[in-house]
C-alpha cells in the first residue's frame, strides 16, 4: 500500500481508505472488516456522526481499541439529529460544530480526530463562522485537520477563497467525471487534496444490474459494463487506477460490508499498480467527460 501526504498536517493517508458507512449494525462482522482493511495496509477509516445515528462511530471505536495511533480517523459533522428521532436538519453553525465534536470524541473514545469534515455545504452557509469553528478545534488539539464534503463547484471555490482545508471529498468515477471541469483545477492551485467517494459508481461498473446514472441511461451503462468486463484487468483495478490517476487525489474512500469485499478491494488495488498509462488512456477515452448543470 502506498500513502499520500496531506500537506501541512503531517497526515499520510493510504491510497485506499475504508468507508465505514457500509458496516452492518445487524452483524458482528464489522470488527473483522476493519481488521482486514488494516491488515492490508489501509490506515484511513472514514465515518460520520450521522451514520446509524452514532452507532457507526462506536463500531469503529470498538474495532481500533489498542491501535488508535496506527489509524487516521475521519468523521463528519453538520447533520443535527432531531430530538424526536424523525430525521436530521442541516446545521453548519459554529455553536453546533463545537458541541457535536464532543459527542463524536466520546463515541470514538479518543482525544482527537485526525480529519473532521463538514458533511455537505451550500453557498448560503455562514462560512466565516463554520470555518472559524474548525480553526478553534485545531487550536484546541481536538482535531488535526479539517475538510469538507461537497460536489458543488461554487461551494468549493468559496471555501478555498476563505480557508485552506486539508481535504475536499467528492464523487468521482468514469461515469461521473464532472470534477475534472472546474473542481480539480481549482483545488490543484491550493494545498488541498481530494478524497474520492463513489469510486466504484455504486457497483454499476462491477457487478450491479444496469440502471440510469446521471445523464446515462441503463443501456449506455450496460455498454460501459461490457467494455470494462472485456478488459484484461479486474473492474476494481481499472476503477482504482482511474481514480488515483489524478494528482490532486489523496485517497479513494471505498465502502465494504464484508471481509470478502475488503479482500477484493485490496486485490484490485494491487493489480491497479500494473496498469500502464497507455491502457489507462484508452480506458479514459471510452468515458466522455460530463459537467455539472447546477451549483456551478
Structure description:
It contains ten helices and twelve strands. It has 296 residues and is an alpha/beta fold. The strands form three sheets. The chain has an eight-stranded parallel β-barrel with strand order 3-4-5-8-9-10-11-12, surrounded by five helices. A two-stranded antiparallel sheet has the order 1-2. The protein has a two-stranded antiparallel sheet with strand order 6-7. α3 runs parallel beside α4 and α8 packs across α9. The longest helix is centred in the middle third of the chain and has 15 residues, at 94-108. The radius of gyration is 19 Å and the shape is globular.
The count of β-strands is: 12
Residue share in helix: 25-40%
* Assembly context of the chains: single chain
Largest pleated sheet: 8 strands, parallel, barrel
List the helices and strands and how they pair.
Layout: E1 3-6, E2 11-14, E3 16-19, H1 30-39, E4 44-46, H2 55-63, E5 72-77, E6 79-81, E7 88-90, H3 94-108, E8 113-118, H4 127-140, E9 143-149, H5 153-162, E10 167-171, H6 183-188, E11 193-197, H7 218-229, H8 235-244, E12 249-255, H9 259-272, H10 277-286
Parallel strand pairs: 3-4, 3-12, 4-5, 5-8, 8-9, 9-10, 10-11, 11-12
Antiparallel strand pairs: 1-2, 6-7
Helix pairs in contact: 1-2, 1-9, 3-4, 8-9
